[in-house]
């Protein structure tokens, strides 16, 4: 068996193909371009498609056509090595970068010192932007930890539920999260895992011409045996075709937001608080806020045209929501523009129902408080009639004593230290 170069028909494809006359199962020409939506391990994918990775040799001086694109992308501020420095093949002076976020302080947070995270409409919004940012960064650090998950899956759907549940429990040991936040956390873990896998592919696979160079410059946190499997998987022509198709689809996307890693929930909160009546911002307002640069950078022509047309239709008397949809079109099933990941029409309806229940509950509490104040007034009048010398302070002290004193010893609360809890129903993991 020997390795050979193959020029793929689609432009800019990487191909590191193994030729074999003795093993017909190594022929991958008939592979499906879609490695199943349910996802699987790379081992299972190789087995299902009859790909033998154990007989590969290292003598693969195969030209990688993606390397030119990767070289052109250098200098974009990304850190290919993740170690605080960028590499340079010409031996030029290395430029320092901050490296990957490890969140060591959060990993070392004691269970009793956890910070509570506030959620609204399924997204974290507080209590401060720093807490929200820490949570997002920590989720990225968790998926880069091989203790929980590695990259040897065709997609996030292939990661076992047990691994995902362990990550959810671990995150709850470092933050106080409402049980309802699990869907958002899982979506963010998925996005962070896909982003990490994409960075590894970009800086350690696409950047180099041969497998020997790829292995020499593999990420230090990924064992060589695992990285070999990733190289083999990414080199399959059908996987490369699917990757090129995804790249083409992303290039068709217009009007990208400029929030970076900033949570849309925070933007929505800021807009809501900026209004006198604290009403919810419209999607048109969210679109403008998330597409307009706060650093004074110009908005691209396509985005500016959408903003101008939307504002024109609103000024002409059209409803904000109708104007937004008429310009940008209806939402795709399961998606809702300008709300951020994980938010759908059904989840919004559910949140609205919960808020309505909370409003009714608050009204009843207020009504009971008013009734109690009225009864206290009557009690005060009766006590002062029976005891002319009793002052208002004496009556208030008597009422307070009756409210705080338990009726009997059996109802006295214990002195067990209370564990901090979220205002919502909170997932409480077992302490180790």
What does this molecule look like?
This is Transposase. It comes from Stylosanthes scabra. A hairpin with a 2-residue loop joins β4 and β5. α4 packs across α6, α12 runs antiparallel to α13 and α14 crosses α15. Helix content is 46%, strand content 4%. The two termini are 52 Å apart. It folds into 4 domains: 102 residues, no CATH class; 93 residues, no CATH class; 65 residues, no CATH class; 55 residues. It is extended and about 100 Å long. By secondary structure, it is mostly helical. The strands form 3 sheets. Strands 1-2 form a two-stranded antiparallel sheet.
Helical content band: 40-55%
Number of strands: 6
Supply Rg: 29 Å
Q: State the shape.
A: extended
Distance between the termini: 52 Å
Largest sheet descriptor: 2 strands, antiparallel
